[in-house]
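Input.
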Amino acid sequence: MEKILHQAASRGHASHGWLDSYHSFSFADYYDPRRVHFGALRVLNDDTVAGGKGFGTHPHDNMEIITIPLSGALEHRDNMGTHGVIRSGDVQIMTAGTGVTHSEFNASRTDPVNFLQIWILPGKRNIPPRYDQRNFPPNERLNRWQILISPLEADGALRINQQAWFALTRLEAGKSLSWKPRQEPGALYVFVLEGKITVSGETLGRRDGLGILGPEGDQSFVASEQADLLLMDLPV
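Output.
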């Protein structure tokens, strides 16, 4: 088993006035050869966009793109005819496949929107593009895993073109939760949204990330204070 710690302060950072972005992996002008990807996880950006601003129409292909708003609302429009708003509590997934163009703008003219944008390398290339989104009530993840994304589209999860599972939990202080890895060999990546936890002998705080390659048995997550966690179970 190998552990890779990504402390919040070590992330790449870009500030463009309207956009404040932190990169856990190499992205745009930020490049670190040690942080190009982790298993199938290619991009984990923590973006804040000012009111009335956003990303104009741009293309993607052969990537699974997941957007998770943490606060505020984001307006999405694409060439598949999709137009809608995703808010805190929602999760969006887009299979870029053979190619898609889309735009993302802050749905508010005044308030910022903060969201995670995550890119996963696909299981199959050049498949038809696809879009989906769903709401995941926060009360359904208290001290338990709430499955957001799965290759099986089971238990209300969004389907992904990859052997990958995403789960959220909110752990109260002093509570613990275990995760049994879904594949072998595999990789787990945990990202702490808020709070503080201990996992695999490492203490993680707000916006810290930890990758575990070849996890051995169930992994236990213990909250020393209330914590919100995003866990990704990925192929190597």
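The chain has a mean pLDDT of 97.
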